[in-house]
Amino acid sequence: SRVRGVVFKPGDFVYRSNDASHAVAGGKLGPKGKGPYEVTDALRNGAYKLRSKDGTMLPRTWNVTNLKRCYL
């Protein structure tokens, strides 16, 4: 069997990896993800635009390898 790639749709909620944002506080014992964030736009090559709960857009795109699905 094959491993299928993860695809998010606009409206899905995700956690983003703290490693990708270069967060240092807590080190390896700190939280692994931050969020949840809402996917607002799915670009090509696995890039996504995210919006926080308070409605502010995150300043850059995030790759699918740095995101995990959030089940609310």
From TrEMBL:
GO molecular function, one term: RNA-directed DNA polymerase activity
Domain of life: Eukaryota
Keywords annotated in UniProt: Nucleotidyltransferase, RNA-directed DNA polymerase, Transferase
Name of the protein in question: Reverse transcriptase domain-containing protein
Organism listed in the record: Tanacetum cinerariifolium
